[in-house]
Amino acid sequence: MLKAKLYFAEFSMLKEKPVTSVSDFRPLFRALLTKILDCTMKHLSTLLLMFAVAGQALFSQNTNQIRISFEHKAGAGPMSIDHTVFPIWNNKNVKITRAEFYISEVEILHSDFGPTLLADQYLLVDASDPLVEFNLGTWPVDVAQGVTLHLGVPPAVNHLDPTTYPAGHPLAPQNPTMHWGWAAGYRFMAIEGKVDNNNDGVPETIFEFHNVGDELYKAVELTGVETAENGVLHLHFILDYAKLFTNMTMNGNPVHHGNTTMNVSMMNNSANEGFITMPVASSADEVDFNSRKVSASPNPFSTETFIRYELPAAASLDLVVTNALGQPVFSLGELPAAGTIRIEKGNLPAGVYQYAFFENKHLMARKQFIISE
Fold first, then answer.
1. Which of 52, 110, 305, 344 is most buried, by CB atoms within 10 Å?
2. In angstroms, rounded to a whole number, what is the distance separating the alpha carbons of residues 39 and 2?
3. CA-CA distance, 75 to 2, in Å (whole number)?
4. Which residues share a beta bridge with 309?
5. Which H helix or E strand runs over 65?
6. Strand order, beta sheet including 328-335
7. How do strand 328-335 and strand 317-322 relate by DSSP bridges?
8. Are 238 and 275 in contact, with CB atoms under 8 Å apart?
9. Are 241 and 99 in contact (CB under 8 A)?
10. What number of other Cβ atoms are within 10 A of residue 157's Cβ?
């Protein structure tokens, strides 16, 4: 805008008399157009380079199969349907006999290009089948630097006819049913079992929570890092069923179907109380503190650099180097808790790279180095 204003000022000064006709204006217009075209051509190469870089970023990313699995727990121990008895927040013992819920609109967070939405993918998680692994197809994602998922079925899909889906589809008719009716839609979560209300340690009072309604659709943001290996990006989540009952007294006759206050409380707990976590999650403070004990020198470099590190690891470490797109370009395993690693430029192009240390897939530290021309 500044250059355009200057050009207008320049042409106004060229005028020795006011423009009174179209013929007077034409020379000025041609001169102005020439200036604009000249400016555009000067920057054309830069624009073409920018489009080329953007195109390479969009199309160079590898595709990987995304698989999701779950570990069903209650507190620190495993949770087995109709078997495990575990305490909730108020020390009442609970035993779950049914636990099913939907997950939709999974987004994989990676690099600086925004999330990748795994469109039209729905999971029906069933604690009675804890070893199932969900295959969500092939997507252009190499590294997950966090995941956003939704509990329930999105409103645009929630009121469609289940019979239109093929057998085996998560939204097709189920046994026991997960569909409440066309008006209300699906049961987003069905949790059933028994709770100890007479304080003898043995759960005896039946409870049911069938959480239904568009307003109960919840987003969950998870932190953690997973890297694809051998064409597969495996996302593993831990479920803690004790968290579902946080601040719920479970007194009286705890049978709640629909969107009652108790149904709302359970769905809020599922989203906000750590019901779902990624095992690789690390606190930002922990990573920041550890990263101070990691350095690359020289940085930037054109031929080689040395990464020196000293981390509070009890097990061996893995080093993963990724490019600006989040794609892994180099990795080392079975590293000690402290040492020095020599990194050669090799065939890597100039640019900014991130290197991270992991202990049992738990992010320990993360820094950057720059490869110069």
1. 110
2. 13
3. 62
4. 294, 339
5. strand 64-74
6. 328-335, 317-322, 351-359, 362-371
7. antiparallel
8. no
9. yes
10. 15
CA 338 from centre of chain: 31
Type and span of the H or E element at 6: helix 2-14
Contact 124, 170 (CB under 8 A): yes
Token code pair at residue 156: 């645009």
Closest CA to 106 of 79, 135, 127, 128: 135
| Beta pairing partners, 333 | none
β partners of residue 227: 143
Cα separation, 94 vs 91, in Å, equals 9
Query: Encoding tokens for residue 50?
Result: 């920018």
Distance of alpha carbon 203 from its chain centroid, rounded? Answer: 37
Chain-centre distance for alpha carbon 281: 12
Whether residue 192 contacts residue 168, with contact meaning beta carbons closer than 8 Å, is answered with: no
Query: Can you tell me the distance from the alpha carbon of 273 to that of 19, in angstroms, rounded to the nearest whole number?
Result: 73
Place of tokens 């930037």: 300
* Diameter over CA atoms, the chain: 103
On the CB side of 283, CA atoms within 13 Å amount to: 4
Q: Measuring CA to CA, how many Å separate 153 from each of 115, 121, 322?
A: 20, 10, 34
**What does the pLDDT profile of the chain (373 residues) look like in tens digits?**
333 333 333 434 444 445 444 455 456 556 656 665 565 555 555 444 444 444 444 444 578 999 999 989 999 889 999 999 999 999 999 999 999 999 999 999 976 567 899 999 999 999 999 888 899 999 999 888 889 999 999 999 999 999 999 999 999 999 999 999 989 999 999 999 999 999 999 999 999 999 999 999 999 999 888 888 888 898 999 999 999 999 999 999 999 999 999 999 999 999 999 999 987 545 666 888 889 999 999 999 999 999 999 999 888 999 999 887 777 888 999 999 999 999 999 999 999 998 999 887 778 898 999 999 8
Q: Is the dihedral of CA 309, 313, 314, 316 positive or negative?
A: negative
What do you get for the CA distance between the two ends of the chain, in Å?
34
Q: Are 303 and 345 in contact (CB under 8 A)?
A: yes
Query: Token digits for 284?
Result: 């930002």
pTM, full prediction: 0.64
